[in-house]
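Entry for the shared binder. Reason: the reviewer on the internal report wants the predicted structure included alongside the sequence.
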Amino acid sequence: MPSPTFAHLTDRALIRVSGPDTHHFLQNLITADLDSVDRTGAGSAALLTPQGKIQFDFLIYRADEAYLLDVPGAAAPDLLKRLTFYRLRAKVDLEQLGGQTGVFAIWDGTAEPADADLTVTDPRLPALGMRSVGPITMPSGPAAEQSDVAAYDAHRISLGVPEGLKDYDYSDIFPHDADLDQLNGVSFRKGCFVGQEVVSRVQHRGTARKRFLPVESSDALPGKGEAVTADGKSVGTLGSSAVVAGKTVALALLRLDKVAQAKENGSPLQCGEAELQARLPDWAAFTWPEPTNAA
């Protein structure tokens, strides 16, 4: 049985949200249901624009009487400012934790570092593994193989799970585009949150036309944001990529109907000089739309 893999995610940061009004403050602001986070210890969430686009995406952990937001490090100062803007008179304390506390990922097995402040199953998808929060000097344990951010990203990409900044820019796309509805990132049962009307409308009408999908190629791929085409016409854009077992795996934001039509027509997907094969992720509850047969 292989040893679990352990990596310090040095590109992540933590924001602590505490105080007597914290639950109510976050419950009315972000896409996750804080009642569920309280029960399970962790959740996946986003803070949206009033127009329903993703302004920040993050994981959220219950930590005693407070919550920790596990966010891309590059976005942490801006998220802290945005939360401060929304705080108004709420009795809530906000702080970005110092560099001595880090976020760790554990996958391809289970391990609970003895020095961890908390360890949870990744709330987006169990196959992603576990997340731990603890001192940056936290040892992986004798049974775990030490790795790095690049290896974790390859694991994440292989499973078809997009992340903000790595696969898309903030304020550009909607939660359904980023599969947040599929990856436990949006609660449709709780009350209002910023941007809720737009997201609920897409959910109830079933009108999500674009999705991040896993793609692969035998060739090297260009960088994030490059156009994906079929028959010379754009069908989407490329996200992050990695090399796994000699193949390039990537995520791409694709128009489902156009890709389905390209498959029906036998037209390959292209990104630069590379040919792509797109598939639905194993966890997807959505399917390919029926192609429109051109006359």
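Summary line for the report: The chain has six helices and 16 strands.
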